[in-house]
Amino acid sequence: MPVGEGVCPRCLEPIPLGAHFCNRCSTPLTFHATTGPYESIFAEGFAYREASSNPRKPIILIGMWLLWGPSFAVSLLMFGISVAACFEQGSLPWILVPLFGSGVCVWFTGALLFKTTKNYVRIREEAEKESAETEDFEEPRSSAWED
Ligand SMILES: [Zn+2]
């Protein structure tokens, strides 16, 4: 196999020479993919997408909450203040800017955290169900003792 050619570590798609991302699943493949100015944004987006859709370990869930939790809390607070200001001072046009801005932040961070938590719970439940089924299968027959 020539240097620089191989397969994607995630989906095993063959990778052309010099490619920074997998053509099929967009996994970052090279050092450049995670350090380039444009590519790092892309790789970061991939990491968050991967973390939020497939949080198998508690540390990923905790990490996402530590990373996005404060942003969510601050934007929610901002949104609350903007809404309160709307009611107090009437609907002034300028209040729409922080109202809209914080609203988008609440929606974005909230959706990300909700998705991560929901998927984490789902994965845990699936894992528990799987292990319960395995236990049932491996349980020794109690009738063997009665004979
Ligand atoms: Zn791939």
Task: Provide tags for this entry.
5 helices; binds zinc ion; 147 residues; mainly alpha; two-stranded antiparallel ribbon
The CA-CA distance between the termini, in Å, is: 62 Å
Order of helices and strands: EEHHHHH
**Count of domains:** 2
In which range does the helix fraction lie?
Answer: 55-70%
Detail the topology: elements first, then pairings.
Blueprint: E1 6-7, E2 14-15, H1 31-35, H2 37-53, H3 58-89, H4 96-138, H5 143-146
Antiparallel strand pairs: 1-2
Bound molecules: zinc ion.
What report would you give on this structure?
By secondary structure, the protein is mostly helical. The chain folds into two domains: 1-53, no CATH class; 56-135. It is 69% helix and 3% strand. The chain has five helices and two strands. It has helices spanning 31-35, 37-53, 58-89, 96-138, 143-146; strands at 6-7, 14-15. A two-stranded antiparallel ribbon has the order 1-2. β1 and β2 form a beta hairpin. α3 (58-89) runs antiparallel to α4. It is flat and about 60 Å long. It starts with 5 loop residues before the first strand and ends with a helix. The mean pLDDT is 78. Bound molecules: zinc ion (ZN). Zinc ion (ZN) binds next to loops.
